[in-house]
Design a protein that fits this description.
alpha+beta; Heat Shock Protein 90; 3 domains; five-stranded mixed sheet; 8 helices; binds adenosine-5'-diphosphate
């Protein structure tokens, strides 16, 4: 039996049973009172009158009860039809939407009426549908971007090797080195995609981080890895840490990855003679880590975009610096995983400051 018929039947049977019970009780009670209180007095005056009054009274009572029951039953049936139709119409709408979602038609919505359980279910379904559409768009964009990013080093490599093969080019050290650079770019990209995938998976299976990582300790060990690069590029690298340990809920390897990505950008976008300062501390009791550089800076209009996958402010410049456009996307995902947030302050020509803050 369909839900609509079940609602109808339940409504109808309940109201009918209540009405019949009410009618029987009413009739029995009125009759008892009438016979025990009213009739003895009239009976002493005229017994036949008593009989007539009793018959008429019982008929009037029975008929009025019968009409009342009939009217109520019809009204109830009408109300039941309307209510069940209203409920099942909304459920059927949601069923259609669920089927559409199952068949890959995402982004559709059902109207949210009122503020009951069904409207909350409709809101959830609409949210699910939109989220699935968003995920699908992200997936498509990711595939397109990835294909685009992979094509460039592959095309360069192919043309170089073809030229060697055809004898158009001598495989000199410089030319072979440029092939190696393209292969490195390729490897970096694949490694970044892997890291991003892991960060995504970590967010999906979000189990709250519980370790108590000392930011000072992680910063010190990560910074050592960048010292030779900075020295080579003529950049001064400073670490400012408080004496006491600054503990956060994020995992040490994630903090190290976040700092590495931020430092990698800072080194890439800071010219010779520049300064990079890594600072650890607390802001309103919350642990933070910041990386400030005196580099090229980021235009204000671009700040909202830089955390998107494969986004690069200046594609030609970034191609030379070897960025994949995934570094900050990874930072954002890892920071979100431990309930933190990232803030950016930047001025073109003066430098940038990235601050990561974790919960207390
Ligand atoms: P990439 O791996 O290419 O560096 P990111 O996601 O790390 O990609 O950064 C995105 C873009 O944001 C970079 O290509 C760069 O244009 C800009 N950017 C990030 N950090 C800095 C910085 N410290 N100074 C200037 N520009 C930056």
């Amino acid at each position: 039996m369909s839900l609509r018929n079940k609602i109808l039947l339940a409504f109808f049977l309940t109201v009918s049973a209540m009405l019949v019970a009410l009618a029987l009780i009413l009739q029995a009670e009125v009759r008892r009172h009438f016979l025990s209180v009213v009739c003895p007095e009239i009976n002493s005056v005229s017994p036949s009158l008593t009989q007539q009054i009793q018959i008429h009274f019982e008929q009037a009572l029975a008929q009025s009860l019968m009409w009342t029951v009939l009217v109520f039953v019809v009204a109830t049936a009408g109300a039941a039809v309307l209510v069940s139709r209203a409920i099942t119409r909304r459920i059927l709408g949601m069923r259609t939407q669920a089927l559409e979602i199952a068949h890959g038609k995402w982004g559709t919505t059902v109207p949210v009426e009122g503020r009951d359980e069904l409207s909350s279910l409709a809101t959830t379904l609409n949210f699910l549908s939109q989220q699935l559409q968003k995920q699908e768009e992200l997936r498509k964009n990711l595939m397109q971007d990835l294909a685009h990013e992979l094509r460039t080093p592959l095309t360069t490599l192919r043309s170089h090797i073809q030229a060697f093969y055809d004898g158009l080019w001598e495989p000199t050290r410089e030319r072979l080195y440029s092939c190696l650079e393209e292969i490195e770019r390729f490897e970096t990209l694949v490694a970044s995609v892997e890291t991003l995938y892991e960060a995504d998976a970590a967010v999906e299976t979000a189990q709250p981080d519980s370790p108590s990582t000392d930011l000072n300790h992680v910063a010190e060990s990560t910074i050592h890895l960048f010292e030779p690069r900075c020295a080579q590029a003529g950049i001064r690298l400073e670490l400012r840490t408080p004496d006491a340990p600054v503990r956060t809920v994020a995992q040490a390897q994630h903090v190290s990855q976040i700092l590495s990505n931020l430092l990698d950008n800072a080194v890439k976008f800071t010219p010779q003679g520049g300064l990079i300062v890594v600072e650890i501390g607390r802001e309103g009791g919350k642990p933070f880590l910041s990386v400030r550089d005196s580099g090229v800076g980021i235009p204000e209009s671009e700040i909202d975009n830089i955390f998107e996958r494969f986004y690069r402010v200046d594609k030609s410049r970034d191609r030379k610096t070897g960025g994949s456009g995934l570094g900050l996307a990874i930072v954002k995902r890892l920071v979100e995983r431990s309930g933190g947030s990232v803030r950016v302050e930047s001025r073109v020509g003066h430098g940038s400051k990235f601050t990561v803050i974790w919960p207390k």
